[in-house]
């Protein structure tokens, strides 16, 4: 075996102790020559390899990562490698989003008796990594900006009929007042400190309901307040996109259906105040009104009128559920328009791997690690035990390096794989306007491509990463 030299690459290998580690041992006993680049980490089962192990290695300086376990149908723990196969394939689809060449990560199956196969696997992977060369380091590359992309056509026409909306809102208020005696609280929206800002509002008395608003400034996903309210009978007002979060939380048994009352109305789209501010020469609007598909905004010394589709967040452009997918009371008429094709891929698709890597370097430089993205996410329910703040294990340092910040965002996206309902709260809550929603959107695309699954669509469905098939239709055979 050749000795370690200055040109040796840093390749990390996670090997199942029952099969692949035995295969590597067999190759060594047989004196089969193989590269010395691989640093082996022995794990009980390939199912124990969290995708975050791979992501952390690649973002911390590894030039390549290899995971190897028992062959399917031959797992020591019966099913571990089936679960691993799904998780690792999703990660492989996701790596290009952050600018990492997917060839730098591979997973395969090697049994304890296949010493020669192990030699071939590690040799081929090492040659691939040597051809690619040392991996770029996020903290060392020059940042770039992706620029502004052309706005896609929304899936359905955005806009509000204000007379109809007023009638529907009046009906909604009456429904809430009638239900309020049987509820501890109803969560909705009220006008904030000016006519451009909505704020979450907790209604406990009938007179509180008169302050309820529902319209283009009702931007927050109120479902974020539901987990943890055990022993309370809670009502909540939802838009179509918000209702997906309810379905997903019900699916994971994180909330109880019989302790909730859901109120819904048809949504014509909300406004992105930061997008409006950009069109008002950087001034934050203090008044917003919508009539049809036109938004009128007023700021200090500046006003303007814009198409709603130009100042709506990305979730409104992608929306295919203007009505709540689940509700006990639905006020007003339901959406009756037509639904267009899915919006084109995000502008990130037009960048090369190197440009994406440098793009995220530039964005992460602005991150202040306030964790607003995590706190606003209705599916991020383990925030009291968040890995970002854990010291046992100590996964993330508290330094200001872009690599640590990007690793946290990747951890968030991986934790939401097969769970993210694309409500857009993470990106809306970011005070630095970092497009962290792109990571979750692309993770959703990977899950949809591999398993034809969309989170928040079916309360009775099983999330794809919590199950498996012996024969996977969209995952290639890896030996």
Please sum up the structure shown.
The chain has helices at 20-29, 51-59, 80-94, 115-132, 162-179, 206-209, 240-251, 273-279, 308-311, 314-318, 353-364, 372-376, 402-415, 425-429, 437-451, and strands at residues 11-16, 38-43, 64-69, 105-109, 185-191, 198-203, 212-213, 234-238, 260-265, 287-291, 294-299, 302-307, 329-331. The protein is of the alpha/beta class.
Report helical residue fraction.
Answer: 25-40%
The average pLDDT is: 92
The unreliable regions are 1-6
Strand content: 5-15%
Distance between the termini: 25 Å
Helices, by number, come to 15
Order of helices and strands: EHEHEHEHHEEHEEHEHEEEHHEHHHHH
* Total beta strand runs: 13
Structural class: alpha/beta
Shape: elongated
Major β-sheet, in short? 6 strands, mixed
Radius of gyration: 25 Å
Secondary structure topology:
Elements: E1 11-16, H1 20-29, E2 38-43, H2 51-59, E3 64-69, H3 80-94, E4 105-109, H4 115-132, H5 162-179, E5 185-191, E6 198-203, H6 206-209, E7 212-213, E8 234-238, H7 240-251, E9 260-265, H8 273-279, E10 287-291, E11 294-299, E12 302-307, H9 308-311, H10 314-318, E13 329-331, H11 353-364, H12 372-376, H13 402-415, H14 425-429, H15 437-451
Parallel strand pairs: 1-2, 1-3, 3-4, 5-8, 8-9, 9-13
Antiparallel strand pairs: 5-6, 5-7, 10-11, 11-12
Helix pairs in contact: 1-4, 2-13, 3-15, 11-13
